[in-house]
Design goal:
heterotrimer; A alpha/beta (533); B alpha/beta (444); C alpha+beta (130); A: 533 residues; alpha/beta; Aspartate Aminotransferase, domain 2; Aspartate Aminotransferase, domain 1; 7-stranded mixed beta sheet; 3-stranded antiparallel beta sheet; 15 helices; 33% helix; globular; C: 130 residues; alpha+beta; OB fold (Dihydrolipoamide Acetyltransferase, E2P); 6-stranded antiparallel beta sheet; 5 helices; binds pyridoxal-5'-phosphate
Chain lengths: 533, 444, 130
């Protein structure tokens, strides 16, 4: 400030800026064992972390939280992401000490509860989408895709058809699909969409029946598509690829439109991933964690990434029955600390013993341990709440909400495909006669009306795409308020475009200088350490 | 209908607006032959019943509230201050998503930026990403970066056998489709042996610090040899150990990766955890995943935004080097809050507590008949114990006394039959350690 | 026609590079049309001088805030020189794509690849059609 500079404007100081030497945010116990000498030559001189008190830390992060928009505050119609309500019950369950303080390398006998839960969830996910077996290990959708494509690759290699190295991907696909194919060491062939938003069948037949036929390893496709549309030709697509010797991968990001409506496995898909953080309500956490379980049919079952949970000892019962008294199964299991069957008198039949198994020809481990268990247990609780009669309603009301919004918004915006949509739909963020206003401006203006914007510029095949997914947990009043906001924005675009171009006006910050961020690359504010030379 | 708020009247109005009579009409595009299958799922349950069932299931596990845990091997039972969980339970954080819209995501963005900064402080690197799935996938991604840095001209990757066995498995899973060789970890090679393998086809050499056996190797001269061969040095580090020991940056690492679960993330049966990834400035544009940078808004106000976006899969598609999209954001927030609370002195204190507890346990066990502890090298909070009986038997006896014992190394390392990897942290009181020693002694 | 410049003395590729021949040295950069499409260029990266490349190989990459583009040469040869000034001031590519924004010079082993390139008029027509 000596040089006359204005103090930097900021929303909230950085944690390092509120540091004061000698302050601490924790109160740790004294060392109750004799101290061992530290190896001086291996010890670091400086640990440049901030020094902040507990109260300051709490206020700092609470204030930061208040700069966010979240589902708990309102409609978050971010297409392709299924931003539904995240039940509080599940958060409480995840924090039970029996889950939170369970070491991943606990012996089988000591983790029967967790293994039981994973086994049930594998079964339920398989049932919901018609697959023979499920592995819960992938940490997110993209990792599920990677597992799926690696399985397809290995399947062909094992059949002596290792030359099959092409995966067909529609041009409306999410970026993770083509990126996955490359990671697996395979090649992408993009397929165009036709005027209805379906895969262009002529292009598909050409790819599958031409020179490349023997190189077709499979196809990745999102159902309903990333345009929110159910491919009306899906059975033909599947058949065409199968006829060429390829396998079908379904990107299950959009399962919220399918539960109880069709089972991908029954349609003929060989493998798909689920996004537990979308369809099954596990929180998105500001960017993650997710969980990307994969389901497969009989063909690919031996290749699943491991470990998966199986019954390794049947016990006397045929398996836990769901109408058993609550907790009975688990209480019995709990007593068996040595892994051997040890029936407890009066508790009914001996339950089976669950254990981790590595599938016979597994493509391997996707991550250490066994997946994002904290997401598995939330998904378990979620499915348990809805049960057989309710899970289809999730999809029905998600699709109702989307079609309702679509019907109302069609009056003020162009909706490219004249069909009912699935759980989401695209509209063009372009106002007739106002060329300077783009989808991005509409999005930014929505913030001023108190909504999170839809997904922008995805899928890439619709110009100025705004992909809108309300989810089933939104109430009609909020959908109506969203429609009104969108209508007013369309009006404003014509009468006062500047308001849109400069939006948002009420958010904590205005539009950001992304060029500066990318050029200057200020990625770290910690004091530098003595550097290696 | 649980979390679905529609009243019958609203549903009717909405259907009328759409122009259909029933919701089911909206599914006409789905093949009729397969439409509306039966679902064999359990019946619905009330919140109260589900809560009771979750409690019952959770109590069928041997957990840290009923058992003293002396097992680590990649997942560590540490104390987590209450503040961490309270911040994680802010709906504004955990019910938001990736900060695609920076104007209404400054909370997540700044907290992630602070996480990146504190990870740089710990590791001595210049930049860190917003997270990978876990320590293992972070290492697998480091392999990709190293291959890219050599423009795929170098095709050899050297891994130490003292890297977590599952991490090495994951590296092999990730790179099975590539024409590269992964070597070094099938034997028992010491670091000098690994350095012998360096040549002009080597993209990287990776070591773990402390290694899987808990030991701290003196890495002072390693970087020079690796760099001389034109390869990258990747260090897999337990960030908790970095509270005490020299930062990998100071030792010349080019990429530092690892599992940041010890920093505020509970054991949780193995996930969600937090793969951290930190790198030198020189390679910063090769980083995969999300990264947050500082900038200004239209009024000149400081703000944060996801930057280096064009490298990501959504823009680069089949030319992207990684497909990562959703990461472990909330866990990065946990680590951020944890590190902020601990701070410079608190974290050092936790590190020392770990060190002293582990050394106290190691020394006492080493004096027991039939047992010996490998004390040939300095170690942090884990150490290898040669046992007089199969590890399973010892663990069984410990379990009966309410103790979860060490990790059996036999299945992973042929030369370590009847060896266990024991871990002590600040959560293990002296009385617990004494009990552990006593039970083990009784089996000598 | 859009308002971008297309100097008449250069040759153009469909991937929007321009090529200038001087002896056996081929200088390459990206066109005015391309820099405009990319918008603010924030980063460039080239292969190292001395590297040899085949026709159709990538010799580097340019990155803006919204996109990343690979750069391709139609001639094989050895990279003789790269424009290191762009590393610190990548915006030069936006400001002067045909001058100070040149990217690499390749000592060409074979010039046949240049024959398949477009002249200025053809390139303009090609851009118009996109
Ligand atoms: C259609 C589609 N596929 C795949 C993914 C990737 O899933 P994840 O982010 O869980 O890795 C997404 C996520 O955003 C998606 O929308």
């Amino acid at each position: 400030m000596m040089d006359g500079q204005v103090p930097e404007q900021a929303l909230q100081p950085l944690i390092y800026d509120i540091s004061a030497p000698g302050r601490s945010g924790v109160n740790l116990p004294e060392c109750d064992v004799p101290r061992a000498p530290l190896p001086a030559d291996l010890i670091r001189d400086d640990l440049p972390l901030p020094e902040v008190g507990e109260v300051q830390v709490v206020r700092h992060f609470v204030k930061l939280s208040q700069l966010n928009y979240s589902i708990d505050q309102g409609l978050y119609p971010l297409g392709s992401c299924t931003m539904k309500y995240n039940p509080k019950l599940n958060e409480d369950a995840a924090r039970l000490p029996g889950f939170a303080q369970l070491h991943p390398l606990t012996d089988e006998a000591g983790s029967q509860g967790a293994l039981f839960l994973m086994h049930e969830l594998q079964g339920w996910l398989g049932e919901i989408s018609g697959f023979e077996a499920v592995s819960l290990t992938p940490a997110a959708g993209a990792q599920g895709e990677f597992a799926g494509i690696l399985m397809i690759r290995q399947y062909h290699i094992d059949r002596g058809e290792g030359q099959r190295d092409i995966i067909l991907v529609p041009n409306s696909a999410h970026g993770t699909n083509p990126a996955t194919v490359t990671m697996a060491g395979m090649e992408v062939r993009e397929l165009p969409a036709d005027a209805q938003g379906n895969v262009d069948m002529r292009a598909l037949h050409a790819a599958c029946e031409g020179d490349l036929r023997d190189r077709i390893a499979g196809m990745m496709i999102t159902v309903p598509s990333t345009l929110g549309l159910f491919e009306s030709t899906i059975l033909e697509v599947i058949e065409t690829v199968h006829d060429a010797g390829g396998l079908m991968y379904m990107d299950g990001a959009n399962m919220n439109a399918l539960m109880g409506v069709v089972k991908p496995g029954e349609l003929g898909f060989d493998v798909m991933h689920y996004n537990l953080h979308k369809t099954f309500s596990t929180p998105h956490g500001g960017g993650g964690p997710g969980s990307g379980a994969v389901g497969v049919n009989e063909k690919l079952k031996p290749y699943l990434p491991g470990p998966i949970v199986e019954i390794i000892d049947e016990g006397q019962a045929t398996g836990p029955t769901l109408d058993m008294p609550v907790g009975a199964t688990y209480q019995v299991a709990h007593e068996r600390t040595d892994g051997s069957p040890q029936p407890k008198p009066g508790d009914g039949p001996e339950p089976p013993l669950y254990g981790f198994v590595m599938p016979e020809k597994s493509i391997g481990r996707m991550k250490a341990f066994h997946g994002n268990f904290g997401m598995h247990l939330r998904a378990y609780a979620y499915i348990r709440v809805y049960g057989d009669s309710g899970i289809r309603d999730v999809t029905r009301y998600a699709v109702l909400n989307a079609n309702y919004l679509r019907a109302r918004l069609m009056r003020s915006y162009r909706v490219p495909y004249p069909r009912y949509c699935g759980h989401e739909f695209v509209l063009e963020g372009h106002i007739e006669g106002v060329d300077e206003v783009h989808a991005l401006d509409i999005s930014k203006r929505l913030m001023d009306y108190g909504f999170h914007p839809p997904t922008n510029y995805f899928p890439l095949i619709v110009p100025e795409a705004l992909l809108i997914e309300p989810t089933e947990t939104e109430v009609k009043e909020d959908l109506d308020a969203f429609v009104e906001a969108m209508e007013r924005i369309a009006q404003e675009a014509r009468t006062e475009p500047e308001t849109l171009l400069n939006a948002p006006h009420t958010a904590p910050v205005r539009r950001l200088d992304e060029v500066r961020a990318a050029k200057e690359l200020v990625l770290c504010c910690a004091p530098a350490l003595p550097s290696y030379s | 209908m649980s979390y679905i708020p529609h009243t019958p009247a609203e549903t009717r109005t909405m259907l009328a607006e759409i122009g259909v009579r029933s919701i089911d009409e909206l599914f006409e595009a789905a093949p009729q032959s397969h439409r509306f299958p039966a679902l064999d799922l359990p019946p619905p349950m009330s919140e109260m019943e589900v809560a009771a069932e979750m409690l019952a299931i959770s109590e069928a596990n041997d957990h840290g509230q009923d058992f003293a845990i002396f097992r680590g091997a990649g997942a560590y039972h540490h104390f987590i201050p209450s503040v961490v969980n309270h911040i994680l339970l802010r709906g504004e954080f955990y019910t938001a998503y990736t900060p695609y819209q920076p104007e209404i995501s400054q909370g997540t963005l700044q907290a992630t930026y602070e996480y990146q900064s504190m990870m740089c402080a710990l590791t001595g690197m210049d930049a860190a990403n917003a997270s990978h799935y876990d320590g293992a996938t972070s290492l697998a991604e480091a392999v990709t970066v190293a291959l890219e840095a050599s423009r795929h001209r170098r095709r050899k990757v050297i891994l130490s056998h003292a890297i977590h066995p599952q991490y090495r498995e994951v590296v092999r899973t990730y790179h099975q489709g590539r024409d590269i060789r992964i070597i070094g970890d099938r034997g028992r090679g010491e670091i000098v042996d690994l350095l012998e393998m360096l040549d002009d086809n080597t993209a990287m050499l990776a070591l773990q610090y402390p290694n899987f056996f808990g030991q701290i190797n003196d890495l002072a001269t390693v970087a020079e040899a690796v760099h001389e061969a034109g390869a990258l040095l990747v260090i897999v580090a337990n960030p908790m150990a970095l509270s005490l020991f020299k930062s990998p940056g100071e030792l010349g690492a080019d990429i530092v990766v690892g599992e940041a679960q010890p920093m505020g993330v509970p054991l949780g049966f193995g996930g969600p955890y937090l793969g951290y990834f930190a790198i030198r400035q020189k390679y910063v544009r090769r980083i995969a995943g999300r990264i947050i940078g500082e900038t200004r808004d239209a009024d000149g106000k400081r703000a944060f935004v996801m930057t280096l976006r064009p490298r990501e899969q959504d823009i680069k598609r089949e030319r992207a080097t990684s497909n990562i999209c959703t990461n472990q954001g909330l866990m990065a927030l946990a680590a951020s809050v944890y590190m902020a609370l601990m701070g410079k002195n608190g974290l050092r204190q936790v590190g020392e507590l770990n060190y002293h507890k582990a050394h106290y346990a190691a020394e006492r066990i080493n004096r027991l008949d039939g047992y010996s502890v490998d004390m040939s090298k300095p170690f942090f909070n884990e150490f290898v114990v040669a046992c007089p009986r199969p590890v399973e038997e010892i663990n069984q006896a410990l379990l009966e006394e309410g103790i979860i014992g060490g990790y059996d190394l036999g299945p992973h390392y042929f030369h370590l039959q009847d060896h266990m990897l024991l871990c002590a942290t600040e959560t293990n009181g002296k009385d617990e350690i004494d009990r552990l020693v006593e039970v083990m002694g009784g089996l000598g | 026609m859009g308002d971008w410049k297309t100097p008449a003395n250069l040759k153009y590729s469909e991937s929007d590079e321009w090529f200038a021949l001087d002896g056996d040295i081929v200088t390459i950069g990206i066109t005015d049309y391309a820099q405009d499409q990319l918008n603010d260029i924030v980063y460039v990266e080239f292969r190292d001088p001395g590297d040899s490349i085949d026709a159709g190989d990538s010799f580097g990459e340019v990155e803006s805030v919204k996109a990343a583009s690979e750069l391709y040469s139609v001639v094989p040869g050895e990279i003789a020189e790269v424009n290191t000034a762009l590393e610190d001031e990548p915006e030069t590519v936006n400001a002067d794509p045909f001058g100070a924004g040149w990217m690499v010079k390749i000592r060409a082993a074979d010039l046949a690849g240049l024959d398949g390139l477009m002249d200025a008029a053809a390139y303009d027509a090609y851009c118009d059609s996109r």
